[in-house]
Amino acid sequence: NFDIIIEKNVNFQPLVIVALYSYLPPRRSEYADAEIIGWDTFKRLSSDVLDNSVFLVHRNNEPLFFSYGSNVVKSPTKINVQVNIDGVLKKLLTYVLKSNTGKYLFTDNQNRKINSNYFGKLVARSFKKYHKSPISINDLRKIYVSRNYDKEVKYTDIEADAKAMNHSVNTAMKVYSKKPIQKSKALKKPSSFKIN
């Protein structure tokens, strides 16, 4: 219950990290650079800024989506990718946005911007806090792919998740998945996935 958490004045950072990697297809460490920005400001940004930034976009402290710039991800994309926020994650981020007046979603203990290496350590510590075992970002990506695909999984499902997770289909099949993948022409996208 989030209301109980609020009353206890809990540090939200570990909880938000666990939620991000539990409710969305797990990205790499792009969240280390995530800036908080209002919808009206976001709409006025130049293409160059959008292509080179990661944003948590909100309207009146209600989170709408994450925007991942095409140039800031490990595997550059032709277009910027937006992933919608809903459900439990939306409720949690709404609480965070109401209390966070800073520029960045994640900071160190002195409220300074963090780098991807620091963020990776935060992820492991956060999962240890809530799941009793540290889990790396790479392991979270493997777990997501392996658990979400059964032996009947379609190639196009892998393709949609690969876009959401910013890796190739080849990487999904050879690195992350431990199960056979069948090719199919049917297209299915994750409900949270949206292309700008």
Nutshell version of this structure?
The protein is of the alpha+beta class and 196 residues long.
Q: Would you write up a description of this structure?
A:
This protein has 196 residues and is α+β, with helices and mostly antiparallel strands. It contains nine helices and five strands. The protein has helices spanning 2-7, 12-23, 39-43, 47-51, 87-99, 116-131, 137-148, 155-165, 169-176, and strands spanning 35-38, 54-59, 62-68, 81-84, 193-195. A five-stranded mixed beta sheet has the order 1-2-3-4-5. Strand 2 (54-59) and strand 3 (62-68) form a beta hairpin. It is globular and about 45 Å long. Mean pLDDT is 82; it is low at 184-196.
The helix content, as a percent range, equals 40-55%
The main sheet orders its strands as: 1-2-3-4-5
The secondary-structure class comes to: alpha+beta
Taken as a percent bin, the fraction of beta residues is 5-15%
Average pLDDT for all residues: 82
- Please give the largest β-sheet: 5 strands, mixed
Q: Which spans of ≥5 residues are poorly predicted at pLDDT below 50?
A: 184-196
So how many helices?
Answer: 9
What's the total count of β strands? 5
Series of secondary-structure elements, N-terminal to C-terminal:
HHEHHEEEHHHHHE
* Distance from first to last alpha carbon: 33 Å
Shape: globular
Radius of gyration: 17 Å
